[in-house]
Design a protein that fits this description.
The chain is mostly helical. It has one domain (about 40-140, about 185-355): 3-Layer(aba) Sandwich (Rossmann fold), CATH 3.40.50.1110. The protein is built from 14 helices and 5 strands. A 5-stranded parallel β-sheet has the order 2-1-3-4-5, with helices on both faces. α11 (about 260-275) links the parallel β4 (about 245-250) and β5 (about 280). The chain is globular and about 90 Å long. Mean pLDDT is about 85; it is low at about 25-30.
């Protein structure tokens, strides 16, 4: 009997020890997790996206930072009656876009995806793209598939660290000492009415200089298309075709080497047209000056991104262009009371944002 009680006490002590260790390990994991700037925060938009009712997103916006701050779903709804969400993020790659899409399609099946396809010219070696996605999506199977790809292509030597941030503590202490311990991963200051969009303020931090029509003529691309990226966008578009999703390419206005940017669009054109992707290029001087009426100073945050006033103008103009597309009449339209409320919340937030 004495031996039995001793064994029970041993088991109880062992259980308490491992429970305590698990709590401390989980706390250390959270404290030492990857941290991102506000514009790189995909965790918060993903959580808000998951709160959307199943299969009620009509249009999904994907891509890099130029898309992230170009389109406002609230105003897109006001103009078109269509429900949308913006899950674009800076420094994306073709690989990260593909796995983000895999995750998205487990929760929503949009009728349309609008993507900037900038990842086709980005190096797939930008590890921050995978770190961002790994830290943001609560889907272990998608994360495992992505990490397996990164290991197979020689990009990741220590895959375990993607799931156990504690193993990366050497690189985290300096950041923690500088920023302090963060007790929450969800950014409660991010307005839900933005639906994933990140807004910037003007005026332009850069000198846009003088731009002429010649500056927007497509010229030699600054970056070539990566063969591996083409392969992943092949998979991306095949997945969309399988789900019956129509895909459009949107090139938003930029003031930094606009001719080179338009050259990259033309370089992509054969690949996109082969997959039935229509291109909507807003990076034309007439569109910028006379149709969107963008001011190079007030409506831009820098020479690559529009300010929030520019975001509003680009969204409204794109919405009008979208309404001219044949697919528009096939999509369900509002009014939807919850989205009408989102529009009002956005206007209230925009007034605060402007005066902050």
């Amino acid at each position: 009997m004495h031996t039995y009680l001793s064994f029970r006490r041993f088991l109880l002590k062992a259980a308490l020890f491992f429970a305590g260790f698990a709590v401390l390990f989980a706390a250390a994991q959270f404290i030492l997790r990857q941290r991102f700037t506000e514009s790189l925060d995909l965790y918060t938009p993903i959580r808000l996206f998951l709160e959307e009712p199943a299969d009620e997103i009509d249009v999904l916006f994907l891509g890099t930072s130029e898309m992230q701050n170009a389109i406002l779903p609230a105003l897109f709804y006001e103009e078109t009656g269509l429900r949308s969400f913006n899950l674009a993020t800076p420094n994306t790659t073709a690989i990260s876009q593909y796995y983000l899409l895999e995750f998205i399609l487990k929760h929503q099946t949009p009728k349309v995806i609008v993507c900037d396809f900038c990842g086709i010219h980005n190096s797939n070696n930008m590890m921050v793209a995978y770190e961002t996605l790994n830290a943001s999506i609560p889907d272990l199977s998608v994360r495992l598939s992505m990490v397996r790809d990164l290991v197979d292509t020689g990009r990741l030597d220590n895959p375990v660290s993607y799931f156990f941030p504690l193993l990366q503590y050497h690189g985290r202490w300096e950041q923690i000492l500088k920023e302090g311990v963060q007790t929450k991963q969800f950014n409660e200051n991010y307005p839900a009415c933005l639906k994933g969009t990140h807004l910037y303020k003007g005026p332009n931090q850069d000198d846009p200089g003088t731009l002429n029509y010649e500056d927007f003529v497509p010229t030699h691309p600054m970056n070539e298309m990566y063969e591996e990226s083409v392969d992943y966008y092949d998979r991306f578009l095949a997945l969309c075709e399988e789900k019956g999703i129509r895909v459009f390419m949107l090139n938003s206005p930029v003031l930094r080497h606009p001719g080179h940017v338009n050259g990259e669009v033309e370089q992509m054109r054969p690949f996109l047209e082969e997959h039935g992707v229509d291109i909507i290029n807003l990076n034309e001087l007439d569109y910028i000056l006379y149709l969107m009426r963008l001011d190079f100073v007030e409506d831009f945050h820098d020479i690559t991104h529009v300010s929030y006033t520019g975001t509003e103008k680009v969204t409204r103009y794109f919405a009008q262009r979208f309404k001219e597309l044949p697919i528009y009449e096939t999509l369900p339209h509002g009014p939807y009371p919850s989205w009408d409320q989102t529009v009002q919340e956005y206007y209230a937030y925009a007034e605060e944002f402007k005066n902050d």
